[in-house]
Queue: 3 jobs
Job 1
Amino acid sequence: FFHTFFGGPTAGPADAGTRGRRTARARTTATSAGRDLEHEIELPLEEAATGATRRLSIAHGDDTRTVDVRIPAGVGDGSRVRVAGEGEPAVGSASSGDLFLHIHIRPHARFERQGRDLHTTIHVPATTAVLGGEAEVVSLDGHALRLKIPAFTQNGQVFRLKGHGTPTVGKSAERGDIYATVVIRLPRSLTPEQQALYESLARLEDSQPIVAADDKT
């Protein structure tokens, strides 16, 4: 009543706009999206191939929380795994950040990984390389695989065991292969009988030189 008849201050358009801006600022500060977080994880080659679960401690300010993360089978060295919503918590109704895992694979004693394939070496006696036979290759999951060695196998020759490598991420049925490189194992000592046999073989080779398999003459 007094504002109307005695000229008191009234809320004009400018004041209404100011109040609107203040309300907007208040709403902006009340909600804030969480930031993404990064974490490094080291895995043995076996767990990288089969998948693994890790319990991590995530620190945010004065608070620390634990989160169980699942690493899919087939991840490689340098892979980046996203765990949605496990990053920094949001303020208000905004979305929390994500957690990104950087994967590092430890070197393996027997296998070198190249993509989905595994490379290894197998030691074969000279007699098996010449006459033929079998060799054992232990897979990454511990299974003994029998590999046929044909006669006259050469040192450094490579054989493939199909489907015994690591899986494709998200497609466990699609697996790489194992490539086994032959290293011919020579004896470090000989019994008298073996010595006599090698000497007999040497005399035979001297009397009739061996022709290389790829020699067309």
Job 2
Amino acid sequence: MKLDLLYEVDVPKPWGKPHPWGQREAEQQAYKDTLEQIKLADTLGFFTTWHVEHHFREGRSHSPAPEVIIGALSQCTENLRLGFGVTLMPHAFTPPMRVAEKVATADILSGGRVEWGTGRSTPMEQIAFGVDREASRDQWKEAIEAVVGMWESEYFEFHGKFLEFPRRMVTPKPVQDPHPPPWMAATSDGSAAVAGSLGLGLLSFSILQPIQRMAQHIKQYREAAANARPITRVKNNRVAAYTLVHCADTMEQAEKNGIWDSVWWWYKNLAEFTIEWELPHLSTEEQDKIFPLLKAQTTGDFDPRGFSDADMIVVGTPEQCLEKMIKYEELGVDQLICYVQFGHLPHESVMRTIELLGTEI
């Protein structure tokens, strides 16, 4: 099992100074820290660094333009593969021809190190971009077919259900032949099976769930992949799963770094954001069912250490982290995506996490 990194560019509040200066300074520092951390990881044997495309997600993800980050990394790293985690494919986000252009450009600048993740996003972002939510999966699939056609043909035209594209030469072409490995983001059993059936790698973005459920997720993917009808000529039968990771020399040091507050911030931010923007129509009872730990924590019935005790996250000394990581390998995970920059963790502690993972694990 290889170790990857994932960056959403967390910029947690409070931002210190009044708007807009506090936000600007916090974002600028987060991007500076991100580049410094990844440059260190490039020297220590990590496999891929993944970069999300998220919009309007205050606090947890200030990363709407992964192609820009990957372009910068292409010039200051040599070994890491550079992953789009993901490009949003419904046409209102980005027309397929623009996806083809920006991913191929990144592949050239990186010397053929790009991994191409794809996805559809969620209602909050889709609504703001005018995406037809009912047609989003069909658009995603058609866009993939169009993009690989643009890469593999000198001149290309496409007449689909959603895209009408006249004969043109789409430039540039990627370094990797015939194109970068394709992936699909998935958060449910059904989505995992779709990825497997289409010959796409599985980016498992489910988190804070029992690892036995992840095992089922992977099993459904593998079963579908065994009888795949690949949507591209690059069949990618790999599982990459992510989780929060923090490694320190001692557990005492991890706690001094504020690990449990940062873990809780991550869960609380995700829950509150989802309830406000994705599921506002649900009753309080329904919301409590989806995010039960919010209520449990307010009544003192939950401690974020429980996530670690159940191996949903990887926290501890190198020995403790290795023990937990082996359990993910045994589930069939090919690449463990380590989300190391989250919450209020000091930059120095994230650098130490990366150093320990690279040198001792």
Job 3
Amino acid sequence: MKPVIGILGRCDKNENDTSLFYIFEDLRRCIYDIGGEILILLPPSLEDCYKTRYNELQDFTEEEKRSIIRWIKMCDGIIFPGGFKLTKFDRFVLEYAVENDIPTLGICLGMQILSSYKEEICFTPIEKSGIIHKQETPEGTSHEVTIDKNSKLYSIIGKEKIMVNSFHTKQASPNEYYKTVALAPDGVIEAIELPDKTFNIGVQWHPERNYKEDIYSRKILESFMESSKKNNKVKIEKGV
């Protein structure tokens, strides 16, 4: 049985100013290509998540929490994808995933969401340094990152310095719980992880966009998928 990967939908609006939720097509194709199935996770509240400010979003009711948990339990792994806005739904799913050791991968905004675990949200603009953090085209890479040799990410990639793509204008702040495990030359945090979890890693770049050409991107995604498969097997054995 293929592992079910829960992907959080991202809120936005179309050209008619109509609010919507979406996932990126390259992420959808990537997950199916490396052996997973997809369950899109969406908040059960009736608020317009795009047009409502984060601090104006209502807390979930107990019934809504039970609904979210029921859907999360169907997932063998969870991806917090890139995007432009986070909601309280992101925070709730993340806390449940951490507490229950569900394999978790944060990408771009998703990594920044991981960096806000149990702390105030603090995404700051990147100061100009000569390093390109928002490349103009989707192809290729834009800068180097240095990976901590004493990290799970390094054990997956097997190399201290790699080139990555980059599509962001804000940066994450250090987190008390997550360990910073990769930096750009200008000190911008590029990857974080929870060392004591099976797989809980956030990367500031987009491995799903170049996994076919880039061996290191593929290693990250395949490692995440392998952890999700093991979680799926454990759940089957336990009859969950």
